[in-house]
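### Sample
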Amino acid sequence: MTQEQLNGFLLTRKQFDLNGHCVFELWVTSETGSHQLIIENEKAVCFAYEAEQAAIITLCKQNQLNITNKPLELKAFDDKKVFGLYANSLKDYHRLRKLAQECSIELLEADIKPIDRFLMERFIQGELCFTGVAHQKQLNASSQTINIVNQAKIKQGEYSPKLSTLSVDIECDENGYLYSIGCNGVGFHNETVEIVLYNGYQITKPDLLPEYTIWLESEWELLLKFNQIVAELDPDAIIGWNFVKFDIRVLVNAAKRNGIKLKLGRDGSELEFIDGNRDGEQRYPDKVYVAGRVILDGIEVMKNATYSFPSFSLNNVASEILGEEKLIQESGNDKLAEIKHLYKNDPSSLIKYNLQDCILVSKIFIKEKLIEFVITRTKLTGVELDRVGGSVAAFTNLYLPHAHRKGWVAPNLVAVKDYVNSPGGFVMDSIPGIHKEILVFDFKSLYPSIMRTFNVDPVALLEAKTIDKDQRIPGFRGGEFSRGNVILSTILDKLWQAREQAKSEQNKVLSNAIKIIMNSFYGVLGSSGCRFYDTKLASSITMRGHWVLHQSKLWFEQQGLTVIYGDTDSIFVSLDNSEFHFEHAERLGIELNNWFDNKLKDEFNLENKMELEFETHFSPFFMPTIRGSESGSKKRYAGMKQQLGKEPELIFKGMETVRSDWTELAKMFQTNLFKRVFAGLNCDEYISTILSQLKQGELDHLLIYRKRIRQKLESYVKTTPPHIKAARLANSQNKEKLYTKGSSIEYIITVNGPQVILSNIIPNYEHYIEKQIFPIAEAILANYSPNSLKIFNQQLILF
């Protein structure tokens, strides 16, 4: 029967052919549960130049392609007329693309997936309203049913879902043989689910096991039970850690080995896995599709949300965010050996460990509101909930439908030979040394505000050619832009207002999502991976940023202040030897904003949408020199951040303390040394104590280097970095490939060179003094207390 209109939220999407016609399958969640929407007889659409029309029609006839064409009032970005091509089936659509390429005929927008085009042209960004002919279908012999809506019609709607999640983690041996599968479910009718499926093949079942254990007798039973658990719980999202690259890959291989289908889809369909591995190398991202269920990898979600950690291991992230750790602390071979031992000898401990990993992932998702983040991102851009990266897709989703409505068809990707790099963000030369008081001012989202102010926009760039010169807004590298309401400025204005609203409501998830999206637009326009790339666009953003910082520097200097540094959207102003004090910070920001308001009105007849904010008060502040030079460094500094009603906070930027490739010894030494310097204390005793403790072996636990192996070990020929030497030595000593491309390695510099951590190695303390401690001390003490550096010479003589 025809269903009344319902609001829902899009979970997954798929396109396929049925009886020679294109079909779109959408899974949505709504107040009445999940629904499978079937949209039939849609067309796969692309465009071509009118000059190629006869050739394309002949091509379609010769190859019996069921494709129609239609004249359109649209032009390509090169100002040539285009017409539309409409394929009844995906098969004919892809065949046309291939034949056109072989005949050197250019099709426009042919790389956009038909289902994505269908949604973006209707401005559907997750939320939708749907109706159609509804019925229920029973799945196989089970009592479970699914809601199907045929002849579905959809349009924009409003619906904010609350997704149920199932956190999944596997334990296995080095060959992928499954020991157990842990599950932790959240959001199932206010109940928490805890289950561990255990493969007890040839193992004596203990009398006492955790109550959430399901004991099974083979890997085959384990996989079948996992299928059943997922179907019964029916989660909206399945989450995990390093989930697609590891857990899903292992599960897929185990299913193949056992002749089982991973029927995890809401309709009982099989999980679809596309392996990005080619010839033993990860050339493309792995992809997974489960009908009606979103698959989310916690690492990828956090990276998309701009989280940064020295290590994205579950143990490290859980420790930093939750203050909790995994139950097994070992890593690498030690961890594998422990898991193998527990599997046979102590199942209860392995079961608890397995479940704990699932629980940690669930807690991270809840505490950091990661589900809310991906939902918000989809609401703002229309990209899939599980999309990794997606900046270009987000921009295309938002921009392309508006470009069509203004009469333009987007170009294809620029050829590599035609790509021209645009200038990066402006970084001023710095004035090195210790400064008493520094004010840092920051332009709020400078690049988006430049786009909004100066109408930097792909279509505005085209339309400027047809208007009088005095009506154009000047850009850089030949770029000029039309005035009035243009697409990108309008999109950014809406996002900007939404972010201001989110900040006023203290909605950090929404505010952060909007910030990430807005800031990505510059990168997209400067990327050869974006169809709208033009060096005039990206350059008109970055070079205008250079101009803004230059103008700001001149203004501060006119006030009698010294600008000691500037970087992209921030400017560092010294109050030393001036009449200004910290209390004047807000006033200075307001006055510079007013100055820009007048300048843009007088020189460009534009409304200023850039806004400078007072960001930080440092007292004192240290800007180092470039090593081996008297010139000030860039993107490296330290300062004591002063905060009203709070203790001062020591901040490092780009220094050893915040770099993952320096030891804990260096980080500890730098932190304590800088605190002493900023407090005006003598540092000699502290330095002597550290050097003495180091020599006596009391700091050996702080000497570990951690590095990731980026390339194959054999590819390091001209130079061999220390971590590669350590990896090769460890592999040779153990007669197996412990370390390969992608591995993380922990090692120590010993008297015999770099080695992985063993109990009988002797550290090379001279190395740690010369390469870790002394460079840190020299950078700041050369300004503060040069005589203190003599202590190092005295200690090295003792070595």
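The CA atoms of residues 272 and 289 lie 5 Å apart. This sample (DNA polymerase) is used throughout the tutorial notebook.
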